[in-house]
């Protein structure tokens, strides 16, 4: 029965299949020629797409908010009565004049204000400050005050504390 059905249309089916094969072959050659004749443009387009995707990814990575966790030790004064750590003063080699400068720095005075209060020149105060920074192994005034509080040279709540 199948042979009867295909037998009468055998020539038509043969022509149809051959036309479909030729059409496929022409499309395949056209596609191949398209790639050959426009190969440079296609390579440039592929590279542009890759770099665009890379740029978007990099922008997302760079603009992503970063969470920074800062851990800092908070020193709490043991009692209201402050006792200066004389041993630390001797070990660090801090003189009485440098201690006075350190106490005034802890009170928040500028170098000019400290010089006026101690009746010395500004250069003398700068020299005392730099020697203090060396002895306490710090770079800034706030770090010097924090280091001095930590080792017990000045009281923790120095702003409220009377001059020692």
Task: Give a brief outline of the structure.
The chain contains 8 helices and no strands.
Write up what this structure looks like.
The chain has 164 residues and is mainly α. It folds into two domains: 53 residues; 75 residues, Arc Repressor Mutant, subunit A, CATH 1.10.10.10. The protein is 68% helix and 0% strand. The protein contains eight helices and no strands. Helix 5 packs across helix 8. The longest helix is centred in the first third of the chain and has 28 residues. It is rod-shaped and about 120 Å long. It starts with a helix and ends in a 13-residue tail after the last helix. The relative contact order is 0.08. The C terminus is likely disordered.
Specify the CATH homologous superfamily of the largest domain.
Winged helix-like DNA-binding domain superfamily/Winged helix DNA-binding domain
Report the CATH architecture of the largest domain.
Orthogonal Bundle
Shape: rod-shaped
- What count of structural domains? 2
CATH topology of the largest domain: Arc Repressor Mutant, subunit A
Indicate the low-confidence ranges by residue numbers. Answer: 160-164
Helicity, as a percent range: 55-70%
- DSSP strand content: under 5%
Topology:
Layout lengths: L1 H7 L1 H28 L1 H25 L22 H7 L3 H11 L4 H8 L3 H15 L4 H11 L13
Key attributes of the depicted protein:
164 residues, 2 domains, single chain, 8 helices, Arc Repressor Mutant, subunit A
